[in-house]
Amino acid sequence: MALQLHFHPLASFCHKVLIALYENATPFEPHFVDLGDPASRAAFVALWPMGQMPVLRDEESGVTTPETSIIIEYLDRHYPGTVDLIPDDPDAAREVRLYDRIFDDYVQIPMQKIVGDRLRPPGQTDPAGVQAARATLDTAYGVIESRMAGRTWAVGETFTMADCAAAPALFYAEKVHPFTAGFPSAAAYFDRLLARPSFARVLEEAEPFMANFPTEPRSV
User: Fold this and answer.
1) Which run of H or of E encompasses 7?
2) In a domain? residue 214
3) How does pLDDT run along the chain (220 residues), one tens digit per residue?
4) What is d(CA 211, CA 133) in angstroms, rounded to the nearest whole number?
5) N or C: which end of the chain has fewer CB within 10 A?
6) How many C-beta neighbours within 10 Å does residue 186 have?
7) Whole-model pTM?
8) Domain containing 96: what range?
């Protein structure tokens, strides 16, 4: 098979690309990466030295593509489907890229800061960093609430790359810094994302690994 996706089913950024693949029923070969296994880690780092998942490998063209937004751009250009994840109109495409960045940079990354801090050994946590991450999330939630008032999807009237970014970001953010009680428009948008078949499939496939998600900080 031409396309190979190197990923882990629990990883939020991997979810973003899986949603894009499932939206267009794009055939691909899944390659499970276990960074805790030395052989799996070594093979993955040989493919992409930065060691960040996911990575898309196109065996037909010989192209290796990291970074979620770039992967979706590559799929949109070389493996288009019925769902136009990046609009042809340049202004709409710019707006999609903007909200893709908002969900990645101001929801996913601070969420991961909180999660990562929960995995640190006692005495090595970063309370100030976690507090800053929570403040960033609160600001982002306000931006999303304002944006989604009266909207179905993040940009325009159809599902796009921005929504691919939003779904896993909001899913995990709700677990570590809940927003649904205080931001009704964002909560309604989140419900629509959860009902989207592509994201529902991603969550179903991730379910066997969800017990590994740190719901609470480690006890000291």
Assistant:
1) strand 3-7
2) no
3) 699 999 999 999 999 999 999 999 999 999 999 998 999 999 999 999 999 999 999 999 999 999 999 999 999 999 999 999 999 999 999 999 999 999 999 999 999 999 999 999 988 999 999 999 999 999 999 999 999 999 999 999 999 999 999 999 999 999 999 999 999 999 999 999 999 999 999 999 999 999 989 876 655 4
4) 24
5) C
6) 24
7) 0.95
8) 90-196
Is 44 among the domain residues? no
CB 199 within 8 A of CB 12: no
The DSSP 8-state label assigned to residue 209 in this structure reads: G
Omega prior to 54 cis, within 30 of 0: yes
Name the H helices within the chain. 12-23, 38-47, 68-78, 90-103, 109-118, 127-148, 161-176, 184-195, 197-206
**Longest Cα–Cα distance in the chain:** 53
- Count the domains in the chain: 1
Residue 122 is part of a domain; what is its CATH number? 1.20.1050.10
- Cα(172)–Cα(209) distance, integer angstroms: 14
Q: How many other CB atoms are found less than 10 A from the CB of residue 60?
A: 9
- Is residue 153 in a domain? yes
**Do the domain assignments include residue 166?**
yes
